[in-house]
Please model this.
Amino acid sequence: MAKAHESTHPLVKHKLSILRDKATEPRKFRELVSEITALLTYEATADLTTKERSVVTPMGEAAGFQVEENIGLVPILRAGLGMVDGIWDLMPDAQVWHIGLYRDEKTLQPVQYYNKLPTAPTVGVCLVLDPMLATGGSAAATINIIKKWGVKKIKYIGILGAPEGIEHLSKEHPDVPIYLGAIDSHLNDIGYIVPGLGDAGDRQFGTG
Ligand code: PRP
Ligand code: URA
Model:
């Protein structure tokens, strides 16, 4: 089976269980998406490069560091939007480049409706954000767009993934590491993750 990083962190497991619960209301759901994303981002960014930067403390000079790479967050609309704030708390200077895709309900194929990327890339690293990796079609299409834009270092961060989506994404983009809160059992006959959490967009935006 294709590989993905599945978090083993107790806080992720705890928060994910509340997130899955059908009784969890949109306000709490949004808070949890944000917190889980921040925890997953900590795991996904351990290899960012840094450069030295000395700082003056009240006691004298200290050797310090700063993250060297410009980082772009790429939330896939709609559901990926809720993952931005948790990362912005950690990296306030990250750029955000939205990609709009929805999944056709019958074919399960991604349909693009928004992309305003400028001609030349403005970041060195992209974190693609979408809570649900189901068939993997939306994530793979978004990563194709980012690669065409010219970015080479790309990571996918999601909250739940199905084995089918992990297989698809890692076959089409073997160079893109996949970070997930949990890997679930399978997709049902209408392409939903089981046991999953239902429709991530509807649960965040109260539209279900
Ligand atoms: C959901 C989800 C992903 C996609 C995953 O979006 O947020 O973008 O489905 O499915 P896939 O892996 O099979 O492509 P949806 O199409 O429901 O749009 P929304 O976020 O606007 O609700
Ligand atoms: N999109 C969702 O929001 N949930 C799923 O289970 C699959 C795709």
About this structure: The two ends are 33 Å apart (CA to CA).
